[in-house]
Design brief:
single chain, 410 residues, mainly alpha, 2 strands
């Protein structure tokens, strides 16, 4: 028995020795994933009652498989030296543009009236994939690569249009018709990263102005030719108007149910699985899972999540500052900040501080693509921190020990 226990312990040590990078980020991602199982299992009762299977456990297994694949992606990516992401972003930008084009050309609604121009179906495994989430990660890596390339160089606005802004606006234009909120988030994150990367503020003002003009023109064209993009602009405008005026609509219904769940949660919540609102709240396992968490785990559960995301933000900044290259610093911020930003938006929507956006809670909400791309981004961050740890270990091994010198001279 002792030898078997020793063998198991040795095997576990070998597994943990393969895990590199910031251990705190690994811990945060693991805690979020573990915590997600109970609220997803509870909120999935709504889907099971109205779905085909009628089996809540099947949704639990599906969520487990999504997270397992996500952590496999995270582990594999963190083993790749982060300098390789420079070249990969150049290769993948055309790929994501093609994927986004295929996605938008396949149509806008399915038989149930749900917008399908956000997803493409993977034929072999028969799974849906939201291309905009992959495009967001690739684009942030691409922008970080360009900013590190021009760092400390004097560059004119015209010189940056083709290599930087043309890919950015192509990605945004292809996402905009189906998903305004994701487009707005990506644009905001690109602006933030370029500002941090030292891109001239006067040029950023030009880009922001161009973005606003482009959005206005798109809305006018969509209004003039509604058959081209049915209901999309009307949906965006109605959500904003409902947020401002609190009109009685479906979006307002979701927010009201969300606030009811939060109010009934109190300090410590009703207990795991005891949320009655999950049967009334659409998207209770994805977009509005934060409301279910507070209803079942109270303010304590909500603060626990807020602390975890705040801790993640802190570690992202630390890893960025400790990176040995400009590209590494910008890369960590470029793929890391959107994770925390998306989490804050999801929470803000649940408490009606923000209009309904359809953004999930990273590593908590159900849904494969969101989990996988979040894990991809975290894997990139861990790759940067792993390189820093490798350099520190190398420097430590090369330090001269005075006792060694003394022993050689005697």
């Amino acid at each position: 028995m002792a030898s078997r226990a020793s063998a198991i312990e040795k095997r576990m040590q070998n597994i943990f020795s393969q895990i590199k990078g910031d251990r705190a980020i690994w811990a945060i991602a693991t805690l979020l994933a573990i915590f997600s199982f109970l609220p997803v299992y509870s909120a999935a009762s709504n889907l099971a009652d109205y779905g085909e299977s009628g089996n809540t456990f099947s949704f639990f297994v599906k969520h487990f498989m999504h997270l397992s694949l996500g952590f496999a992606i995270m582990f594999a990516v963190h083993k790749i030296p982060y300098r390789y992401f420079k070249g990969l972003s150049m290769i993948l930008i055309p790929v994501v543009l093609v994927l986004l084009l295929i996605t938008i050309l396949q149509g806008t609604t399915n038989a149930e009236g749900t917008n399908t121009s956000r997803w493409i179906n993977i034929p072999v495994v028969n799974m849906s994939f939201q291309t905009s989430t992959l495009a967001a990660v690739v684009l942030m890596v691409y922008v970080a690569r360009y900013l590190s390339k021009i760092r400390d160089k004097s560059i004119s606005f015209n010189e940056s249009i083709l290599p930087l802004w043309v890919p950015v606006f192509l990605v945004l234009i292809l996402i905009l018709p189906a998903n305004f909120s994701t487009t707005a988030i990506i644009f905001t994150m690109v602006m933030m990263l370029t500002f941090i990367g030292g891109y001239p503020i006067k040029y950023l003002m030009i880009i922001i102005g161009a973005g606003i003009i482009s959005l206005v023109m798109f809305v006018l064209v969509a209004k003039a030719f509604p058959e081209a993009m049915p209901n999309r602009v009307d949906t965006w405008m109605s959500r904003i108007e409902n947020f401002a005026n609190a009109e009685d609509t479906e979006a307002d219904y979701q927010i009201e149910r969300s606030k009811t769940a939060i109010a009934s949660g109190g300090i410590f919540g009703l207990g795991p699985g005891k949320s009655p609102t999950k049967y009334l709240l659409p998207q209770s396992s994805s977009d509005f899972i934060f409301a279910i968490i507070i209803e079942e785990y109270g303010l304590v559960g909500g603060l626990f999540l807020l602390v975890l995301y705040s801790w993640l933000l802190f570690r992202i900044v630390i890893v960025s500052q400790k990176s040995d290259t400009i590209f590494g610093r910008l890369l960590v911020l470029g793929v890391g900040l959107p994770i925390v930003f998306q989490a804050l938006i999801n929470m803000a929507v649940a408490v009606e501080l923000f209009p309904v956006t359809g953004q999930t809670l990273p590593l908590i909400s159900s849904g494969g693509t969101s989990i996988w791309m979040t894990c991809l981004a975290i894997g990139i961050i861990l790759s940067v921190s792993a390189k820093r740890q490798e350099i520190k270990d190398q420097e430590a091994s090369e330090e001269v020990n005075p006792l060694d010198i003394l022993s050689e001279t005697i």
